[in-house]
Amino acid sequence: MLISVIIPVYNAKEFLEFCVNSITTQTFLNYELILVDDGSTDGSDRICDHLANQYRQIKVIHKSNGGAASARNAGIKEAIGKYIHFIDSDDFLPNKSVYYELSKLFKYDADIVFSRRIRYNEDLTKNTAIQPKYNHSGMFEGDILYDVIINDYELTLTCPVNKLFKTEFLKNNNLYFTEGLLHEEDEWLPRVIAAAKKAWFYNDIIYCVRQRNIGSFSATNNDLSIYKRTKSKIYTITSGIEYMKGAIKDEKTIAAAADYYWGYMINALLGVAAIQDNDTKDKCMKEFIKNKGFFYNYKLLTNRNWRVMGWMFTHFGVRFTAKTVAIRYKTSHNCQT
Question: Residue 324 and residue 335: Cα distance in Å, rounded?
């Protein structure tokens, strides 16, 4: 078995069969498709079972609802293919030869295959964004994390579906998703890339995103969602920098990681600054104060202005400096997401 395709399924009946059809019509047949029903209540569970009865390559895991991270972890544990490809249940593959072309690369034994994706509107009448090409093409065996950070590759540290991951590499390094977070891939991917020794940069488009018109939980602005989003971002930056300091020896790579997480932190602070409800804003700010140890990493930063900002956080306090940062970046679009 060469490819294990893992699809988390939660109340996805509208687009699930379209998604699966883009896989079952591939000319390449040496794959397994793992549908992880994450406690669906709209009949998606029955669609999964129906599809499994139609296609021998399809396996179904039924589990209680635990979120995308939990579903992906269940799929990783079940996977027996040499490589894993994650697909979201409302997305699809662009053509019938995607896996055939990718399979030609497996002989190079890369830990990660970086590829590209395209985004369409919901009814697929037009594309709305195409991921730019990488500077590299082919095998890369240098400092992969440093390379992707300094090149600021779009969708590299925040998107798992435009990549394939060597199954043995994930399992041997215990690289599972942290459950209970929003945007769990933002926390997972930097760890995965930091652990990789070999990567292949493949500049073809292997994945199509369907941009849904409906609002998602992460896009809503009610108090609970803002608070949960902030907590997830704080966990990502605090656990991420500590992981990098323990796992990486090269000082320039640690500095690049610190810059990356600092940009992520600024983005989180700007989100809190935009909150109108004072109680919610205070609750979010208390999460930053509770994790203020992160700000002492400012000495690792390469950006002089950010080092000054870090000094302010540690000397003038989180609340005062956060207000200053919000004013400073109010009209700026240069912080990392």
Answer: 15
109: which residues sit within 8 A by CB, 6+ positions away? 166, 198
83/165 Cα distance (integer angstroms) = 5
Residue bearing tokens 């369409």 = 120
Which SS3 state, helix, strand or coil, does residue 186 take?
A: helix
With both helix axes pointing from N to C terminus, report the angle between 184-195 and 251-273 in degrees, rounded to the nearest 10: 170
For residue 33, what are the β-bridge partners?
Answer: 5, 58
Residues whose CB is less than 8 angstroms from the CB of residue 93 and which lie 6 or more positions away in sequence, other chains included: 22, 23, 26, 87, 99, 206, 207, 208
Q: Are 270 and 329 in contact (CB under 8 A)?
A: yes
Return the sign of the alpha-carbon dihedral for residues 77, 83, 88, 89. negative
Question: Pseudo-torsion of CA 232, 191, 161, 143, nearest 10°?
Answer: 140
Q: Which residues contact 67 (CB under 8 A, 6 or more apart)?
A: 38, 179, 180, 184
DSSP state of 116: E
Residues 6+ apart with CB under 8 A from 332: none
pLDDT 10s digits, 279-328: 999 999 999 999 999 999 999 999 999 999 999 999 999 999 999 988 87
Tens of pLDDT, residues 123-138? 999 999 999 999 999 9
- What is the distance between the alpha carbons of residues 16 and 18, in angstroms, rounded to a whole number? 5
Phi, psi of 203 (to 5 degrees): -90, 10
| Single pTM value for the model | 0.93
